[in-house]
């Protein structure tokens, strides 16, 4: 059952406009998880509250010793994201952190000057949003609507920029770090022009960053209203998915009863047969835009890897052709548990 009490623990950190989405832990870290979520983190993520800050310090020491030129955030709340995403395995958490920064260096067209105002056109179009109510497992629902985008509107990479900013905002609250998220992708209106974008090479890069370089748990991907051409779209994505993640893709077609068996109608808007409020594209866009200064500090400064020497295995392959993309590393969309 959902631990809804835990969703209100950040309300004192937020203005009234933002109170529907939990905020990040306070600057001087204090755990904001409810007892039930602490128990869940212990069971699923190997997180022991009595050792939590000791584990953070261990990871911090590893970074300072092994990557002294990595100018990354070292605060407790930030490092906890990576420990939770890798079940408190120090070595794997460090690898994830390096991949996180490596992806940013390898794809400057996504990460340069990355801030909400630079993707306002994507948000206004309604390519993505986050539903205001989590599902019964406490997981927020990221709603993607690729059919809203047309290739003549703007480059596809702008969608990636908006997606990354959304994930960055989503991962701030500890409840999301523990519960993970669910994706709802509505393919209404998707035709050949969208299906030919981004292509296998760009798809590989998006998948690589999300699977190896971002500390979030993607627990399910629900596809609805997929056209016949979706088989071709999924054929581009599937080579990069591990079996465990591929099994979390559920195709519902236009069957809303099937969707409701995975995502309750009580948290869905009427457009998806639900009983929650109408789909509001402005709320999430406004929340991101109010975070402009926060993202300027995070992404519009000298790159954290400047001067850091990393092995090739920790950097993304930025070269190649679309044919190379099909033959390249077959991996999952996100390494989740």
UniProtKB/TrEMBL annotation:
An example Gene Ontology molecular-function term: phosphatidylinositol bisphosphate binding
Gene3D superfamilies the UniProt entry points to: Alpha-tocopherol transfer (1.20.5.1200), CRAL-TRIO lipid binding domain (3.40.525.10), N-terminal domain of phosphatidylinositol transfer protein sec14p (1.10.8.20)
Superkingdom of origin organism: Eukaryota
One GO CC annotation: membrane
Pfam family, one: CRAL_TRIO_N
The CRAL-TRIO domain, residue ranges: 115-280
Protein name as catalogued: CRAL-TRIO domain-containing protein
Organism for this UniProt entry: Knipowitschia caucasica (Caucasian dwarf goby)
Species lineage: Eukaryota, Metazoa, Chordata, Craniata, Vertebrata
């Amino acid at each position: 059952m959902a631990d809804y009490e835990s969703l209100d623990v950040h309300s004192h950190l937020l203005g009234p406009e933002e109170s529907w989405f939990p905020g990040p832990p306070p600057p001087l870290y204090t755990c904001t998880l409810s007892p039930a979520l602490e128990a869940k983190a212990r069971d699923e993520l190997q997180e022991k509250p009595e050792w939590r800050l000791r584990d953070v310090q261990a990871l911090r020491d590893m970074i300072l010793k092994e990557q002294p030129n990595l100018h990354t955030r070292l605060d407790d709340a930030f490092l906890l994201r990576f420990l939770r995403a890798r079940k408190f395995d120090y070595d794997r958490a460090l690898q994830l952190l390096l991949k996180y920064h490596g992806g940013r260096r390898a794809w400057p067209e996504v990460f340069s000057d990355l801030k909400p105002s630079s993707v306002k056109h994507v948000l206004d179009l309604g390519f993505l949003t986050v539903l205001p109510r989590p599902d019964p497992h406490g997981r927020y629902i990221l709603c993607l609507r690729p059919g809203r985008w047309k290739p003549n509107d703007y480059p596809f990479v702008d969608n990636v920029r908006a997606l990354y900013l959304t994930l960055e905002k989503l991962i701030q609250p500890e409840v999301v770090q523990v519960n993970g998220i669910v994706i709802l992708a509505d393919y209404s209106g998707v035709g050949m022009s969208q299906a030919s974008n981004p292509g296998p090479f760009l798809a590989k890069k998006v998948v690589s960053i999300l699977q190896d370089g971002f500390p979030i748990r993607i627990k399910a991907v629900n596809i609805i209203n997929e056209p016949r051409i979706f088989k071709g779209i999924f054929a581009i994505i599937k080579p990069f998915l591990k079996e465990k993640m591929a099994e979390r893709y559920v195709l519902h077609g236009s069957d809303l009863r099937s969707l409701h068996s995975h995502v309750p109608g009580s948290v869905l808007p009427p457009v998806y047969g639900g009983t929650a409020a109408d789909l509001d594209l402005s709320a999430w866009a406004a929340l991101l835009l109010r975070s402009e200064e926060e993202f300027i500090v995070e992404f519009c400064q000298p790159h954290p890897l400047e001067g850091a020497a990393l092995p090739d295995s920790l950097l993304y392959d930025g070269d190649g052709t679309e044919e190379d993309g099909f033959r390249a590393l077959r991996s999952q969309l996100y390494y989740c548990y």
